[in-house]
Amino acid sequence: MKLIYQQMLAFLTIILTSLAIVGYVVISFTTNQAYSQTYERLEGYANSLEQIAITETRGPNLGLTDRFLDNLQIVMQSDDVTMRLFDAKNNQIYPQSNIRWRLPKTFYRDLKRGQIIRIRNDHKGSRTRFSNKDAYTSVLVPWFDKGKLIGIIWIGSRVQNIEAPVKIAEHNLGVALIFTLIVGLVLSLVLSLYSTRKIKRLSRATQKVASGNFNVQIPHQERDEIDDLAANFNTMVQALKTSSEEVKNQEKRRDQFMADAAHEMRTPLTTINGLLEGLQYDAIPEEAKPKSIALMQRETKRLIRLVNENLDYEKIRNNQVMLIKTQFNAYTVLSDLVTQMQQKAKKAKDDLVLKVPDPLIIYADHDRFTQIMVNLVQNALQFTNDGVITISAKRS
Length: 396
Known about the structure:
Elements: H1 3-55, H2 66-77, E1 81-87, E2 92-94, H3 105-112, E3 117-119, E4 136-145, E5 148-158, H4 159-162, H5 164-210, H6 225-280, H7 289-310, H8 313-318, E6 325-329, H9 330-347, E7 351-355, E8 361-365, H10 366-382, E9 388-392
Parallel strand pairs: 7-9
Antiparallel strand pairs: 1-2, 1-5, 3-4, 4-5, 6-8
Helix pairs in contact: 1-5, 5-6, 6-7, 9-10
């Protein structure tokens, strides 16, 4: 499920849960209030009739004539209220009926003790029905005169009339629920779109970074956690950009390093190969062989040093060149150089002239000094034809 639907579902779940709780509380309060007011109203009628019954002349109807009770019943019917009277012996005395109505013994026992009995619905859970047609909410109130039970009144109102406001409240809540659902759906959609818009922007930026574009920056206002995530994303992309540039720079340095290494190794390899061929075909005089072998040894050692240096990854990564300075005879290096370059000089019809005192002690990095001089002489040979190239040196 996509995030926008998850958020909408979460918002709607919260709204529906809140409405269900509020609706339950409102309906319960309205119902209890309706029944409570009905009980109080019915007990008020019963208490008023009790005062009349006590003050009037006593008779079979507790001092209340049938005509008075009939007229009272007619008045009460406008309020949809009806009543029954029982004497002290639990016999119904009003209205007159061929059926002998009596209250349950448990009811009668509690009433004799002075308790008022409230019946919410005499068709549900009550031990007697006061009408077979309609359900009544009613009260049973005992009448006492000087501490002696003189009668009992049952007075009730139809349940459907009492529950009318409850049904109205339920209807209003239903309408409110539908309206709230519509509004909640719209609001949840807006809020979800607002949140997912930021996330989609992050997703698109992530795809660009994955494709190698490290110039992505997400605007944010530091309002919420998603903005914090965007800020962290920008920091991450900046770090990746720096790292990527460093990797590219290292690659360039590595390529340059290897090119330089190949260039540096070409000269000693060429020299060694030429001398070996000369020895193989006896092209080198006997008196020059020791010098040739010594030259090959020196070039081999220089080649080994070059290989070891070029395999040092840390130097490549940090772009560092270590200079190992020592004292050595520059004449030997320059003399070997002239010997190595004679073949190239002959091809270019150039003369190589060495004007250097022996010994010529200098303080430098042996291999770097050799590398520099080789490059200088090679450049001179490359751009000179039928000329003289002089290598001179002196101490000052």
